[in-house]
């Protein structure tokens, strides 16, 4: 039995799979990843600064100009998003924890979704705290109602993740009977530490273009996740 066949069997038999997804999942939809050559950080001297709390507070226009480049309204969910969403409907206890902030899991109607780093498509005014339409934010970062600064609800560098989000992700992993790490180098902390909370008898599957660094035994499928999910 090939590795791919083993993984398909595990996924079929699983009752509580958890998908830990990253930027590689959305690359086929036309959204560049962050760190690879040609990604959104390419040729930027201090990319982390542009997505930091400091930049947001001290150089708002520079922050706003960069963040607008992260929006790709033309992008649509690809085969991987759609099949994962389908699995969350077929298996009521299936969950998705994503690093992605691109909204494609939501567009695919994924159930039991945890946006670990937030979403570009959830915006709010930092002055009056009202929710704002993303279309309005892309026109101006000033809230028409009160003049406050609008920002997307994403976790910036120098900011902490909300405790309830971390707890929800840990709970999802700790209850899972199968862990699938998809489209991520799995290097960003604390997302990469979630695997430490899995049950010792829960298999780990990695579907990615490159291997990840982990001491845990796992099955590895190299390549574009769409190739695998087209067979699910």
UniProtKB/TrEMBL annotation:
SUPFAM superfamilies: DHS-like NAD/FAD-binding domain (SSF52467). Gene3D superfamilies: SIR2/SIRT2 'Small Domain, TPP-binding domain. Keywords: Acyltransferase, NAD, Transferase. Residues 1-232 form the Deacetylase sirtuin-type domain. PROSITE patterns: SIRTUIN. It is an enzyme of class 2 (transferase). InterPro entries: DHS-like_NAD/FAD-binding_dom, NAD-dep_sirtuin_deacylases, Sirtuin, Sirtuin_cat_small_dom_sf, Ssirtuin_cat_dom. It holds the Pfam family SIR2. Its EC number is 2.3.1.286. GO terms for molecular function: NAD-dependent protein lysine deacetylase activity. This is protein acetyllysine N-acetyltransferase.
């Amino acid at each position: 039995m090939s590795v791919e066949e083993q993984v398909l069997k595990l996924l079929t038999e699983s009752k509580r799979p958890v998908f830990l997804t990253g930027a590689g999942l959305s690359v086929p939809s036309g959204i560049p990843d962050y760190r690879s050559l040609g990604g959104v950080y390419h040729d930027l001297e201090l990319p982390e600064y542009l997505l930091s709390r400091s930049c947001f507070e001290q150089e708002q226009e520079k922050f706003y100009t960069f963040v607008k480049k992260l929006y790709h309204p033309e992008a649509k969910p690809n085969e991987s998003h759609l099949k994962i969403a389908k699995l969350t409907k077929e298996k009521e206890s299936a969950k998705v924890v994503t690093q992605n902030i691109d909204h494609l899991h939501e567009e695919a109607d994924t159930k039991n979704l945890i946006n670990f780093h937030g979403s570009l498509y959830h915006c709010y005014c930092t002055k009056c705290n009202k929710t704002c339409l993303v279309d309005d934010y892309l026109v101006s970062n000033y809230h028409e109602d009160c003049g406050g600064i609008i920002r997307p609800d994403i976790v910036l560098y120098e900011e902490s993740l909300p405790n309830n989000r971390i707890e929800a992700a840990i709970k999802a992993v700790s209850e899972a009977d199968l862990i699938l790490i998809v489209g991520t180098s799995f290097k960003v902390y604390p997302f990469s530490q979630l695997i430490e909370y899995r049950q010792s008898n829960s298999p780990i599957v990695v579907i990615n273009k490159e291997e990840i660094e982990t001491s845990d035994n796992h099955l590895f499928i190299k390549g574009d996740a769409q190739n695998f999910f087209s067979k699910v």
